[in-house]
Amino acid sequence: MDLLQSVDPTSGQQGDPFRPSFFELIAQDQLRDLLKPALRYVLAVLAQRNPRYLIRVANRFDEVYALAMFAVERHYLTTWGSSFAENFYGLRRRRRPGLSSSRSKAFSTGSTRTSLARYEKLRSREINLSLFLLVGAPWIKSKLHDYWESIGGGAPEGGLFDDEDEQGESGGAARRFAGLAQTSRTEQLRELFRKCFRSGYPYVGAGYQLWLLSYNVAYLFDRTPYWRPWLQAMRVDVRRVSAEDYPASPPLLPPDMPNPLRSPISFALALLRASPFIFFEALKYALPASIFFFKFLEWWYSADNPRCLYKRDPAFKQPLISTTRAAPTRKVDKDGRAVLKETKDVLLHNACPLCGSTPINNPCVLPTGYALCYTCAHGYVDEHSRCPVTLVEISGGTADLRRVLG
């Protein structure tokens, strides 16, 4: 199999056009992983402003998130036959038939195609198992990870500085034996369980990831139609949505809605009955938008944001000259280095702030974002170690100069 066919299966003559590429499946899996931290951040910000109402929800975020996603995933599995993330990327789940989809559709008539579509539709068993694997299993996994961290997972056995006992190993062993003798058998079993869980959890996690990796590689090279082992156990695979898979998209509002002017009460009741469906369908746009908003806030308050850098840097001052002004003539010192000159002349476009030459000769960019001639910038930064326009200190000196090519 051509490896590039997994990127674009429609490019190959023998490829199945409805078989999703491995990267589509990874993208929808990552989308589901990004939802939880984004919603947690939004809830934490709101809880700080309204702790009276939201602090309990924030403390029980895992349970609240699991219940919310249970309702969302159940709606999409029963309505569209796919999870929320799969529906966002135009994918669906189906019960895999005995024959491949292309062969079964090629030799089928209209009635058999209808029966095939009815067979591929998810039943209650597949929906319930999918709900457990999409909502229940991640919740259990997060609780196990929290428990592993609470009992000291990832910390060294001998403490923070690995100092077991000043009297040596024999004194530490005697003290542990005396402590175990005073505790009950139940406490001893609990301590043994904690120790075994703390030591074995990383190995189990590594084995689980290797198990998934084997299925990823097999799916990538077209060795299996299932990209997850539990999908193989359910005999459910993931496919791209085609025009024959679904009827026309169900309308957000029922077609028999009463006239709001003639019977406003009936219209309000019908709208109230349709509100859950409208809400869940709107989530396909609202939740990805929340991820974008979360990433934007993460960048906005990060240390790499120039706004935060200028607030923390005491060396930052107002620009010596305006961004629309610069020296129109070149002035050099006795060593031939460019010297900044006070002026009130209007800056020409693409002019060097130091020498005023237009266009800039051999341009380079400073860390502050201003472009100058390389010779002018090199001489000024080498002598003063700061930006000639903003006077911000350049700690790296001339090594921070970046030439502009092209």
TrEMBL record:
Compartments where found: Peroxisome membrane
Topology of this chain in the membrane: Multi-pass membrane protein
Family matches, as Pfam families: Pex2_Pex12
Keywords, in A-Z order: Ligase, Membrane, Metal-binding, Peroxisome, Protein transport, Transmembrane, Transmembrane helix, Transport, Zinc, Zinc-finger
Domain Pex N-terminal, first and last residues per copy: 28-302
GO biological process: protein import into peroxisome matrix, receptor recycling; protein monoubiquitination
Cellular component per GO, a single term: peroxisomal importomer complex
InterPro entries hit by this protein: PEX12, Pex_N
A molecular function GO annotation: zinc ion binding
Matching SUPFAM superfamilies: RING/U-box
Main subcellular location: membrane
Recorded superkingdom: Eukaryota
Pathway(s) served: Protein modification; protein ubiquitination
Similarity annotation: Belongs to the pex2/pex10/pex12 family.
Known partners and oligomeric status: Component of the PEX2-PEX10-PEX12 retrotranslocation channel, composed of PEX2, PEX10 and PEX12.
Name of the featured protein: Peroxisome assembly protein 12
Organism field: Ceraceosorus bombacis
